[in-house]
Amino acid sequence: MNTAFFDLGIAEPLCRALIAEGYETPTPIQTQAIPVLLKGRDLLGLAQTGTGKTAAFALPLLQKLCTGHECRKPKSTRALILAPTRELAIQICDSIKTYGRFLHLRHAVFVGGVSQTPQVKALAGGLDILVATPGRLLDHLQQGNLRLDAVDTLVLDEADRMFDMGFINDLRKIVALLPKKRQSMLFSATMPSDVAALAQSVLHDPLRIEVTPQGRAADKIDQSVFFVPTAEKRALLAKLLGDRKFERVLVFTRTKHAANRVAEHLEKGGIASEAIHGNKSQNARQRALARFRSGEARVLVATDIAARGIDIDGVTHVINFELPNEPESYIHRIGRTARAGATGVAISFCDASENTYLRDIEKLTRTAIAVSGGVRQADQPPPSRGGAGRPSRSSKPSRPAFGKPRDHRNPRGQNQKVRGARAK
Ligand code: AMP
User: Fold this and answer.
1) In this structure, what CATH number is given to the domain that contains residue 198?
2) Nearest CA to ligand 1 atom 6
3) Among 148, 186, 239, 393, which is disulfide-ready with 177 (CB 3.0 to 4.6 Å)?
4) In angstroms, what is the span from residue 180 Cα to ligand 1's centroid?
5) Is this prediction's pTM over 0.90?
6) Any domain includes 215
7) pLDDT digits (tens, 9 = 90+) for 30-50
C-alpha cells in the first residue's frame, strides 16, 4: 500500500496505480493540492510541467468521478480539461489513463490535426473526462456534437500559454457554456495580469499554491556552452553523440527547417533521429515522439513550440543547437532533462551572432554558464527573430572552435559556476 498518497486521502485503486508507476512520495504541489481538491475547493496553481501538477489535479478528479453519483450522458462530459497544445492534451490523457487504470471511467482526448469521426463516436455514450485543445472543442460545440451543461469540474492547464497562443476568446466562449456550479482549477507557470483576470472570473474563492521549480531544476542540470561557428555545429553535435553516455538526447533548433536539416544529417551519419515541429501532421508528431520515448530514436530534434510541455522520462541531455531568442525558452528547454528528481546535462552551441541571446539567458538565470569549448567571438548582429541561424560569412571557421570537449562522463565535477547566484 502506498501510505503517503493514502494519507492524503487518495483511494486504494488509485494508490495501486501509483505504486505500479513507482510514485512513492507526493511532490510538494501534490501534498498541498490533493486534500484541498478532494474537499471540492477551487485551486489556482502557479506551477509548470515537471512539478507533478498533472497528478495533483488528476488524482482528486478521478476519485471524485468514481465516487460521485452522477452518470454519463450522451454527447456530454462530466469533467473538462483544456490544454494549449495537442501534445500536452495527449500527455494529460495518457496520465489519466495510467492513474485511472483500475477504475471504470471513460475518457478521451480531442485535438486538431486528426479526424473528428472517432471523437464524435467517443461522445455517443458520453464521457467522464474530456481533455481537449480549445480550437477543436469549439468545432465540436459549434457542430452540436457536444454540450457542456453536465460539466462539474473544469481544469485549465498552462493558462499563460493559452494567452500566448491566442486562445483567450475561445476560452471565454467555452467557459460561458459551463454550469456556474462546478469545481474549477487553473494552472499557469506565470501570472501576468491577464491570466490573473481570467483566474478571477473562472475560479471561486480558490486556494492559491505556488511551486517554483525553476531554481531547483536548474540546480540539478549541468549547464555548459560551446562557442562554435554555425558551420561547425553539426560536426560538433555528431562528435558529442559519439559518446554513448548521450543516451536520450533532445536537440533544440529555432526553426522547423533547421530541425529537419539536423535530424536528416544525423540519420545520414547513422544516428537514429526524429524531428518534431509545427509543420508535421499530428500523426507524424505522435509517431516521432513514440519512437523517441521507446528509445528507437536516440535523438529528437525539436522546435520550441513543438516541445513545450512535452514530458519524456529519462532525457539525459538537452542540446541547444541554436540558442533561443527568448531567454525564458532556455529554461523550458533545459527543464526537459533532470525531471522527477533525476540529474541532467544541458549543452548550448553559441555562434557569434547568438552572443546577445546567451547574455540574455545568463541575465535571466543569473548564472554564468561554464564554457566547454571555443572562445567567445566578437558580437555579430543576431539572426532575425526566429531566423534559421545561417552560417555567418564573417565567422572564422579556420580553427575548430570547440577543441577538446569536456568529459561528460563526470560533468558536474567540472562545471565552474562563476557567479552562482540563481533566480529564485
Ligand atoms: P508533470 O509536472 O505533471 O508533467 O509531471 C512531471 C513528471 O513527474 C512526470 O513524468 C510524472 O510521471 C512524474 N511524477 C509526478 N508525480 C510524481 C511522484 N509523486 N513521484 C514520482 N514521479 C512523479
Assistant:
1) 3.40.50.300
2) 50
3) 148
4) 31
5) no
6) no
7) 999 999 999 999 999 998 777
